[in-house]
Amino acid sequence: MSALVAPNEVVTRALLRQVTVPGLDRPAALITLDNGLDHTKPNTFGPAGLASLDEAISAALAAEPAFVAVTGKPYIFCVGADITSLPALADREQALEIGRLGHRVFARLRDSAVPTFAFVNGAAMGGGLELALHCHYRTLSGGAAALALPEVSLGLVPGWGGTQLLPNLIGIPAATQVILQNPLMQNKMLKPKQAAEMGIADVLLEPADFLERSLQWAAGVVQGEVTVTRPEVDRDMWAGVLYFARQTLDARLHGAVPAAYKALDLLETAKDADFATGTAAEDEALADLIFSEELRSGLYAFDLVQRRAKRPAGAPDKGLARPVTKVGIVGAGLMASQLALLFARRLQVPVVLTDLDQSRVDKGVGYVHTQIEKAVSKGRMDKGTAAKLYGLVSGSVDKSVFADADFVIEAVFEDLDVKKQVWAELEKIVAPEAVLATNTSSLSITAMAAELEHPQRLVGFHFFNPVAVLPLLEIVRGERTDDATLATAFAVGKQLKKSSVLVSDAPAFVVNRLLTRFLGTVFAAVDAGTPLDVADSALDPLGLPMRPLALLQLVGPAVACHVGGTLHAAYPDRFDVSENLRRIADSGQPIVVEDRINDEVAKLLVVGDQPLTAEQVRQNALDALAQEIRLMLDEGVVAEAQDIDLCMILGAGWPFHLGGITPYLDRTGTSERVTGRRFLPPGAASLRA
């Protein structure tokens, strides 16, 4: 223990008390994990926390209880290891020791002759969920907000038994989903019902009286009144599932995420190896990964998402925000309808859509109603909430319905003159202090507001599609946008449960500007004669969420051409719209069909005779990103490089193992070669000091 380093550990204490449970002739031992802070600071385990748990288990067993149960403070069970202490580990031996310590302490619950229970009352992730898996039985609260083994997303593996226990509890297909698939899908969490259906928990209980019912249920198990049955794990399909999983990883990551492949190896070990052998393999894998560049980038990205995203740089005093009691949405197309549903669900205020004719309005409101019905049918929304939302969302062809709206957002055709016309008309209708927000993806907020009587109340409010999934919101300050408008925009963004980043009024803002430069470089290679498949696969070693052509298809070639044109007008020396891209957009044909490049699209291309290698395409793309990021920082588009990375992670789905993008550009030497200096200080998101 003394060799382990955790200088900033907030110690999670294991508090033991004896509990009398009706029907039992001996008290039960209840261990509560509590770091002494509120639910916004979850329980984690560092060396001192593990020592406290170890002592509590010893004391509990010494009292010869009817059973031992572990639970957490309100709303939180435990979210795992204190990952902030990992960079302080001095060498591989210390990394091995932290793995072995967790295994030794948790194994006491698994190996106990006294029945052990985990009462999972709230969030349980990583080592917290692994602690629960070591117990003989598990109850789960229906109010538990987050359940996951997210380690692979950070560049680690579940290192305290998860890779060995979970597949042997719930089977290899479900375990692969939890350990590999979910972390690589923007760290997707399990819902309590889903976790219970998988077999992670033995019983799902209501949160209101969760502890009391858990104690009663545990007493029933001890007395033999409750029988826990678990289906036999199918071992015949083990190899096939892992073979398919490896193929999927290769197709998506191309070896770029070492943690994912180590997790696969550990899952393979779990089929036949004894528990000691499997956990020893976890220790070795963990020790290897702790000293990897991918982990440093993952921890950097995790910090951005967990901390910086919640305290947006440059946001004005939230006390300046005005209340929003009604929202207006100009337009009733797909984007507008998605926004209507989001605003109604999160703000719980009336939302009204308008469009040019009644049929469009009816279609937009109908979309909202359909999505509500789907949520009810899938058990994601109760009928009472649905009825309320039906009543909140309405539509009209008469913009006078916006007269009492406090916040009006437009989602109309991406044309500056069209948007200026919308605002000129609305300004005569809405109250003088109503916030006007534009969902433009590339146009100037300042130009849009230039002829308004109150230009200070126009703000950029740029969502990413699909609206319900991607968490980023680029909040754009025009030259005359005032602090009250900006504060209201940030307050609304928080209510919408989006992560907002303050962006200055520069063409295409952050994500679209970088993705356009990125795609432009790839298409420049195609124009020069590089085969489509070579250009498309050139970035594979980065392990991006999708290849360039799939990204282009998601964005839409026509939209890409439009944004490219906006950027070409602003920066003609760096942005151009490829004629081949125009041909694809004009054809209306899909670029990718069943994960393959469409042969008909390939026939449309007119190319040169100077093809590039995949390595040249990749380096050109990285060089272009480095140059553009440096220019954006010099222009003050965002406060710091960290905001660029946050935008790319949350708005474009770029992976944690890259740290967004700037850590990767730094550690490959691209930043210094292209711009003369690093984006981040030495040692930030890197092993290199």
Automatic annotation (TrEMBL):
Sequence ranges assigned to domain 3-hydroxyacyl-CoA dehydrogenase C-terminal in this UniProt record: 509-588
Classification of source organism: Bacteria, Bacillati, Actinomycetota, Actinomycetes, Micromonosporales
Family: In the central section; belongs to the 3-hydroxyacyl-CoA dehydrogenase family.
Catalyzed reaction equations: a (3S)-3-hydroxyacyl-CoA + NAD(+) = a 3-oxoacyl-CoA + NADH + H(+)
Cleaved signal peptide residues: none
Gene3D superfamilies with a match to the protein in the record: 1.10.1040.50, 2-enoyl-CoA Hydratase, Chain A, domain 1, NAD(P)-binding Rossmann-like Domain
Protein name: Enoyl-CoA hydratase/isomerase family protein
PANTHER family attached to this UniProt entry: TRIFUNCTIONAL ENZYME SUBUNIT ALPHA, TRIFUNCTIONAL ENZYME SUBUNIT ALPHA, MITOCHONDRIAL
InterPro entries, sorted: 3-OHacyl-CoA_DH_NAD-bd, 3HC_DH_C, 6-PGluconate_DH-like_C_sf, ClpP/crotonase-like_dom_sf, Enoyl-CoA_hydra/iso, FA_oxidation_alpha_subunit, NAD(P)-bd_dom_sf
Residue ranges occupied by any 3-hydroxyacyl-CoA dehydrogenase NAD binding domain in the UniProt entry: 326-505
Pathway(s) of this molecule: Lipid metabolism; fatty acid beta-oxidation
Keywords: Fatty acid metabolism, Lipid degradation, Lipid metabolism, Lyase, Multifunctional enzyme, NAD, Oxidoreductase
